[in-house]
Amino acid sequence: MMDLQEFLADNYRVELSAFHTILDGIPAESFATPRLGHSPAWHALHIADWLRLTVLGDKTPTYHYLGWEDTAWIGGLGTQPAPLNEDAAKADILARLNTVGAQAVAYLQNATDAEMSGVTFSPSAPNGERPRLAAVGLHLRHVAYHRGQVVLGQKA
């Protein structure tokens, strides 16, 4: 029987692979072109940033693609340059997404029961944190949402 950690890791693996497949199908010359609000590059960097924050609990102040940069709760999370910007090469952005995604999958697969039953920093939550399982579940759906946004953008 599959345990919770393997279930979560497997679902993230599948969803991130589907997201990568959609992004990979976009021509490099239009990867940074906004469609319906944001470019495919932005969506990839956005998910990489949220993986770092929600799953990995990384508070390194290099966030610039959370989508909430103009809100007070972002605080010191964006005080240093982003690892990559939207105008970076498509291959570099996809490599970043894949690297952070693999780190998130590995974390989920190896997390202890105590880690899974704990809370995690969630600046968009009213009290600034969420139960870890709720947070990773919300984020998994968030990846699927942005996959859909990229698909819709290509149809516009």
Automatic annotation (TrEMBL):
<dbReference type="Pfam" id="PF12867">
    <property type="entry name" value="DinB_2"/>
</dbReference>
<protein>
    <submittedName>
        <fullName>DinB family protein</fullName>
    </submittedName>
</protein>
<dbReference type="InterPro" id="IPR024775">
    <property type="entry name" value="DinB-like"/>
</dbReference>
<dbReference type="InterPro" id="IPR034660">
    <property type="entry name" value="DinB/YfiT-like"/>
</dbReference>
<feature type="domain" description="DinB-like">
    <location>
        <begin position="18"/>
        <end position="150"/>
    </location>
</feature>
